[in-house]
Amino acid sequence: MGYTLSAYAIMLSLPCRINHMANSSIQYRIVPRQPGAHLFEISCTIPHPDPAGQIVSLPAWIPGSYMIREFARNIVWLKANANGQPIKAEKTDKTTWQCAPADGPLTLTYEVYAWDLSVRAAHLDDTHGFFNGTSVFLRVHGHEMDAVEVEILPPEGERYRTWQVATALSRLDAKPFGFGRYRADNYDELIDHPVEMGAFTLASFDACGVPHDVAITGRHNADLKRLTDDLKVICEYQIRLFDNEAGETPRAPMDHYVFLVMAVDDGYGGLEHRASTALICSRDDLPKATDKERSDKYRTFLGLASHEYFHTWNVKRIKPAAFMPYDLTRENYTRQLWAFEGITSYYDDLVLLRTGRISVEQYLALLAETVTRVLRGSGRLKQSIAESSFDAWIKYYRQDENAPNSVTNYYAKGSLAALALDLTIRTATNNGQSLDDVMRTLWQRYGSQGIGVSEGEIEKISAEIAGVDLSDFFNRAVYGTEDLPLQPLLAEFGVNMFLRAAENAADSGGKPSTKAETSPRAVLGVKVSGGSEAKLQNVYDGGAAQAAGLSAGDIIVAVDGLKVSGGNLDGRIAGYSVGATVNVHTFRRDELMQFNVTLQAAPTDTCYFKIPDNEEGQQIERRKGWLGVV
Ligand code: ZN
Hints:
With about 625 residues, this protein is of the alpha+beta class. It folds into 4 domains: about 5-200, Immunoglobulin-like; about 200-295, Zincin-like, CATH 3.30.2010; about 315-505 and about 620-630, Neutral Protease, domain 2; about 520-600, Pdz3 Domain, CATH 2.30.42. The two termini are about 50 Å apart. Strands 5-4-8-2-1-12-15-14 form an 8-stranded mixed sheet. Strands 24, 25, 26, 27, 28 and 29 form a 6-stranded antiparallel sheet that branches. The protein is built from 17 helices and 31 strands. The chain binds zinc ion. Zinc ion binds near residues 307, 311 and 344.
């Protein structure tokens, strides 16, 4: 399945297209009909419907977010009309409609409920509208390769007079940032350009000659100058990374790019597209004019923007063969998400360092947090990142209370595999070659040629560039579950890696302990919700709580007869010695239960790095080659 032309379309469409170029494209029209009720009304006119009865469907998932979401559930009603007469449109499965035969243009009109404030779907209220094409534009079967026109209309009413439109869709008669007509070459392009409408803040900059826009929705007080200055440097670095032919002006693969930013009270996420990204962030993540330095939260935002921008190459153009084309009706399986997400995650912060947005110390602290996060999940010992990629649809994207014990994060562990690969190639070639060369080769041979990357291809190219056999490396790092050999690899680059026990529940690592060595802290081996109730979110495999019979979902009400809350449980437990047995009262459902828990020592899983004081010149040189700075 996919967007292939049917034999019928191939036979008939060519002469037909030439004669009726102007009106042979599929025409969509979208209007925020009732913002208060979160309803978009959409119409889709098909000039030459399938005479046997046109089939239409809405995607079951959106590329970049590997979970079946069944967007058709938000279609409230759908009507079909041909030659001014209503015709039958009957559902044949959860996402598909079969229309009755029609001679002449067919128009489908339908309403979509849009109240999902995420980067993956559609959202509409009195303040703004946002949609991904996968949520609102029906796929016209057999016409997926037809050109498409979209008319985007504002809501009716004076209060919407200041609304504008931000999207990377090509404009037809629409003015810049205006409502009006837009176009796409085919359905795949149509659904890869999310659209924001509202009274957003606009900022623009140029990166290697390509105009970039930033549209920020939501109340905020961002320092737009700092934001665009930082984004420009990050974008230009990435454009040059992929196109570094000497003497040539580096070329970006798109002629316009848009950052669509939704600033909310508390949120974090992004979704990549070929010429734009939709980001959701906390308004505190945006830089303020009063900030003297880049805050940690702003650095997190820049990391997110850098991540999604890197996807412009890695996954939007350098794609797994399994995604060419996407089959939007069902799961698309690949074992390579570790590379498309992991390598992207490796570069997101690395680019911030190489462009001077963060210091070496800050970079190593971020890296230490990633190592710590990976080490804290015993799922890494059961599922390889290749397996995690394959099962993303049912595991990584659908995590339950047992996820830390059973699922490997192919972003975090994938980024460490990318780091290990980079350092392995650099070591084998005396820093002459690196993962940068692997990415450029993938771009030159696959991404820029529109060729999908088959399973195992990234491994072959890496070995070719390293000039050594890397099959053992990949068998362990990607297809196996043992921990990566980061310690010896990093030592060659003058970075010493250490592990220690966490000092408190919130300690995610990153900074070496300043405390003198103390005896290890006693822990229950659980993750507990904060707040007034000590509800167990996760119970870790092999931990004290699991051994005693406690379960995720249990609410701990007392330890040794004293009331506890989500806020003080860890501290209360830390007051005991390792090996002590405590009496724990919990509610499971509405039943009071009692357990004797023998406390364990906090595991030694918190990573930190140090650059040695008296290091050799060779290590400094190697580190400079890797990080771009000393
Ligand atoms: Zn990503």
